[in-house]
Write a structure and sequence with these properties.
This protein has 12 helices and 33 strands. The chain is of the alpha+beta class. The strands form 8 sheets. An 8-stranded parallel beta sheet has the order 11-10-9-8-4-3-2-12. It has a 7-stranded mixed beta sheet with strand order 13-14-15-1-21-18-19, with helices on one face. It has a 5-stranded antiparallel beta sheet with strand order 24-27-32-29-30, with no helix packed on it. The protein starts with 17 loop residues before the first strand and ends with a strand. Strand 13 and strand 14 form a beta hairpin.
Length: 591
Amino acid sequence: MRSSSYSALPGRRLRTLVVLTLTAALATAAPTAQADTTVAKPYMGWTSWSMQSSKYPGLNPNGDYSYLTEANITKQTDAMAAKLKSFGYEYINIDAGWWMDWSWQPQYDEHGRQKADPERFPSGMKAVADRIHAKGLKAGIYLPVGLEKQAYGDGKTPIWNAEGCTTGDIVYADLRTTNGWDSAYKIDFSDPCAQKYIDSQAQLFADWGYDFLKLDGVGPGSFKSGDNYDNVADVAAWQQAIESAGRPIHLELSWSLDYGHVEDWKKYSDGWRIDTDVECYCNTLVTWENSVDDRWDDTPAWTRHAGADGWNDLDSLNVGNGAMDGLTKAERQSYATLWAIAKSPLYTGDDLTRLDSYGLSLLTNREVIAVNQGNTPPAQPVTASDPQQVWAAKNPNGTYTVALFNLSDAPASVTANWSTLGFKGKASVRDLWNKESLGPHTDRITQALPAHGSRLFTVTPRGTTLAWTGYEAEAGTLSGNASVADCSACSDGRKVGNLYDGGKLTVKDVVVAKAGTYQIKVAYVSGDARSVAVSANGGGVTSHKFPSTGDWSTVNSVYVPVSLKAGANTITFDSGSGGYAPDIDRIDVQK
């Protein structure tokens, strides 16, 4: 019972990707924001949901979601132990339906807690966890947030280990509903009995030996908002219950969590899904345009929040099964590349018993896994979200992780300019996917990519640090609706906003020593992704989409190419007729 099983997702345009990781001997190169990854790292494992939700022939022979059985969990456990355990994969996560019969009717114990369906899991959930542990792996389980309607009963069901408490005590009198499907009653945590109920569930999972809980349908998020769907108190209650249950349990939240509550997700959980389901609910596990490609648009705003407090979860990584995945080889590699550089948990939903050789090579490349699992920050865009784009992160050891994306549906060349990393000159390049050194490259690297293709490199700069000249946006010439506004996070405490419906910002006297195409750095604020037309000296207008910064108080920056003449130049940012552009803080131009 996850998000896309309740609503069809619209088709989306096709896109393509390339990625690089760069090593810098130069400590003074332009830094990017770094996450503290010293306490935790993204988890790795397998989830049952992708195969449960697919209509691929043979996966669900007894009806929808019938793949989920004890026998199939055992097969995947054995396959993970044999094929992936040595590479860091450790969680076997049982998703929605373990307490449902074949017709999706639930089972509960005498205390209103979910109980394993005896046909799906004849040995019971403890025996399943014991079997997973016997292979040296960790066991995961699933619940929707709230008190399921059927668990309420007549409101007189007694809460375990809570004398005098019943299910009627823990919900609101009007039985208001909650979660992404309105399948549960909202819990009223003003009554102490409510915490007791969550404690009883956590204790049950701890006694069974589970190491991971996915709490699903959480709001604000899961396509729901408003007081009924604010489940922050539920998440806090779960954290408290886990701490008192006597067993460490990783708490993962799902799905499409509200960005405005990111500090709550960080405070009370170990990870959070930032997007809708990656599965297509079709005759494959996923498709590129269904929602895999959405992650390139939706991830940037969250990037700065990934780290020791938890990780941005991009959902399952289904790249191992060839035709069943529903992707080309190029798309499978791009999918794996983004998950790795974004520091997303690496958990696959593929059938581990029949990984093809290419899929196995993607899931077990130690150099790529190290990008995800090492003490490195996630990459973020350094160029606009155009069909060809570059992502980057400076790592503590001086390396850079840099992603190049060609998001069009046709082959294209993509270039990473070293100037967007803060240096010029030579840099040596190592190809991580192919495990080979490519020798030195001067000032840039250009790759010809297939549709939706990707590359991943380690590059060691040998050049010199660049110097930049800054120009404050509020010192420019404004026209149309454009106006100056206060901005505590901005350079000099101000920015230019209201760039809409023809509003323009013109920055004059931008001086460079010689003519050429320059990567100018644009610091901006934008609560959603917005486009702006950039031009120099009245010609060469190009529209660029800037990724969301998450809110209207956070400043990010990207680089855009602009052709400048020697001497003084004028650079214009134009929202266009009927358009809405991001707020502009300042620009920096290479000297």
